[in-house]
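Take a sample.
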Amino acid sequence: MSSEPHIFFSDVNERQGSFLRRTFLLGGGMALGTAALVGRLAQLQIVKAEEYATLATNNQFNFRLVPPPRGLIKDRNGVTIAGNRPSFRVLVVRDETKDLDQTLDLLGQLLPDTLERRRTLIREINAAPRFSPVPVKADLTWEEFSKVNLHAAELPGVMADMNEARYYPFGGAYAHVIGYVAKVSDRDVKAIRDKGEQPPSILFNPGFRIGRQGIEKSLDTDLRGEAGGKRVEVDARGRVVAEDVAGSKPAVQGAEVVLTLDNDVQNRALEVFGEEAGSCVVMDVRNGDILAMVSSPSFDPNLFVSGVPSKIYRALADYERRPLLDKALGGTFAPGSTFKPVVGLAAMKRGWDPNRRVVCNGSFFLGRRFACLGRHGALDLRGAIKASCNVYFMTIATEFGPDAIAETAREMGFGQSFDIGLTGQKVGLVPDREWRRRNPVRGDGKWYPGETPSYGIGQGALNVNALQLAVYTSRIANGQKAVTPRLIKSIGGVEQTSGTAFADLPFDPALLKVLRDGMEAVTDVGGTGFRNSQLGLGAVRMAGKTGTAQAQNYGAGSRKGAGRPWAQKDHNLFIAYAPTDNPRYAVSVIVQHGGLGGGTAGAPRAREVMKVALLKDPEIRARIEQAGFEAPEDAGAREAEARGEPVDAPTLEAPAVEVAAPPPEPAQ
């Protein structure tokens, strides 16, 4: 069946007209499309050329944050005690690796110790922002650094560079007071967000470190500085091919912090403890500047900068002598007999005559017998401090009661924290009748008379820290002002408030003079601290007070804790100031579970630390030399020179402290 056309034209011109209309419509459509395309191209290339050029440039260049160098921390003499040092490190960029597992396998062949942290590394690399280099290992040796660079072509996404790492040149000497830096944790970010603040972008940089304890934590914002950035050119895969120096922004180093600490005194304070546990604080009694604040045993904060291995951390945390605890601020102990001057001052403030004598026959009776460890006969207050007579201070404690003692104790610095720029201070406990009402024993909130004798000799519920003891000693030595401690000298060159405008102590200076007389007698012939408190600096002498505090009730056992486990031995304390005729420095020493006496464990350590502080003081050293007395290191050098031996530069380090128990001494 043949097909026939559906449209019939009766005229040839009619067919031609239809064709021309179609041509016109198609041509017009093409013309309009061409015009639209030309217009759009004109808009893109002429009208919006600058905008799209900027977007193209942004796609070509990335701005990568650069952590700033952390601010230096220095001692009062300009010695850097927390600084930065060059460190070779190897980094991995997840987005530039073909296979992260394979890359870490290859890297593990070059750096075997990275295999131990493989799971942690994978977690950190996957959590990092895109194209952010994640440190895999820091402090590479030159051999390791060279090895990584040699195999760089075989390790896509791996790079080795040099950065600045936090460094603590004196290790454990400042571990507690300065603290350390560590990686930013989710908890740190959450804490900032909980305050309603937006965490800075630099916190998410894998190489950034944040202050974790001590001054590093409390002044973290000042020490942190301002992050910089590198404007780098990247290829289609995001890999860096060049840096735009003009578009980069240099990082600004954090503010320099100067502390009141003295590096020589601080280091000596840690040295004298040896293997013992405890704390030591040295203060200037005139302005409250802290020259040393040490907790022993300590730890090396450098271990924490790159992440301390879990085995090492566990060993530190589980050791019974608690190296991670700052015992100077966070460790509280019964002050023992070092507290007796407080009891005497409380009594004198309320009319007790310091010349009144109390007879000691070796025991005090109040419902039961309280031992004195000696028969001292008739003593006045000065003699009672010298002999550390329990009977004398139990007598006046029961006469004036716990509230009077507590009030004076707080006025002398106990039961409070101090604004020195550090957190973690434990205020301790200064008990009184109101405290007992709020803290009843088996439902009974009454203060019983039998509690008071122990309170009078620094035992019972009373506990204090080493900083409080140093403040208390400074106030006795100053004699007029309620000295408060200062640790931070300046931040970014701006001097911090100096402790010179102290409030007056609420005591007649003559009463404090009585306490000083007694403390000077302690370090004189017959005193409980005489044997180990002699400075050997001529007329420059030290006054002090010994103390021994029971860690538990021994019953009929040895008071010294001989033969007992370490944790059951007595605590040994000593407080002192020097020079006696013009007090300048105060020191407090606590030897935790030393098991000896305050005069045999605490006094020799306080002596060695005090000698360094005194010999570094130009005025006191000049006074010693004018009197024709040579400091120990000068005399040793002179003798060596006379023998024709080479003479080293003078050192302020005194001989090693001997703490072997001497023959029995008077009561502590």
The first helix runs from residue 12 to 47. The chain has 22 helices and 21 strands. The two ends are 135 Å apart (CA to CA).
